Amino acid sequence: MYRFTLPRDLYHGKGALEALKNFKGKKAIVCIGGGSMKKFGFLDRAVSYLEEAGMEVKVAQVMLDFEPDWIVAMGGGSPIDAAKAMWIKYEYPDVTFEDMCKVFGLPELRKKAHFCAISSTSGTATEVTAFSIITDYAKGIKYPIADFEITPDVAIVDPDLAETMPKKLVAHTGMDAITHAIEAYVSTANCDYTDPLALHAIKMIQNDLVDSYNGDLAKRDSMHNAQCLAGMAFSNALLGIVHSMAHKTGAAFADYGAHIIHGAANAMYLPKVIAFNAKDETAAKRYGVIADFMGLGGDTTDEKIKLLIDYLRKMNDDLNIPHCIKNYGADSYPTDQGFVPEEVFLERLPEIAKNAIGDACTGSNPRQPSQEEMEKLLKACYYDTEVDF
Ligand SMILES: [Zn+2]
Fold this sequence. Notes:
alpha/beta, Rossmann fold, Dehydroquinate synthase-like, alpha domain, 8 strands, about 50% helix, binds zinc ion
């Protein structure tokens, strides 16, 4: 038996934020991250819509005292993910972080509050997913919390919010989204319910991402839907080792002054992982289907996979994302000598490889890497060398 879970309601299209006017409840808390939701006026609008719905509204950080029956999380992936973790804590104050990280092991939520997520970026799709990524800065590791309990009750996918994204964020979140769709499509947990969502998202991202990056706002609106469809796919089909590697390298070199931003990490690792996974016959066929769906040409499966890899690498170039960690600058742009020194990378490699194998996303990858293979794969992602193993 398989489970396919999505938010009960999804409001989309320009101005969808207004859906908050029709929420039923007594008290709502609005959680935001940095300042952009406030700066661009979306916070004020959300608060006034909820007040119009007859609710008492407070903004962030007072959840336990305030006892809300609605948690409304707005912003990029991180603040919404943090609000998901706060929601678990609010429902079960004694739960520990370790408890939360047990995959599909959360207790039943919604005893105290329902959850609405409103994304301002077009990548993580956390507004529709069963995931929350929490970074442990002390350990330099990102942990996914995974459980359908934290799939939001309501998602609001309003492209007005995404139009405020700076260019670099458009690039990174967009490559995150195409990685979600491709990993979901070849995941061992793929099914007839997730495949069409993944393929359609891939096609939309192929059509829209680079133009969105170059300032086409209609395409940016479309990307906001595309990333959400990719999210619906991967929340139910799960992901693969591109994400395992991105999770475990993202903060691993923070002591050298920067993070490898999630979407950029995915963009660099995805072509390498496709080459690695393509040794699995079923995965190879599925990559071929993706290439066909994108209209990339090629006669044999091998040719199709090569064309897919080339296409994705070209997207990195168009979006000013490097191809490997060695060339990843502290500002995320390509540079000759990136911020991760070679000897530091090699010294930390065995530990990072071990952590990546243990990541929650590895289980559904079509090919299970050994420690040695994962180290070789990560090396290929550092030096941008061919994956022929
Ligand atoms: Zn991702």
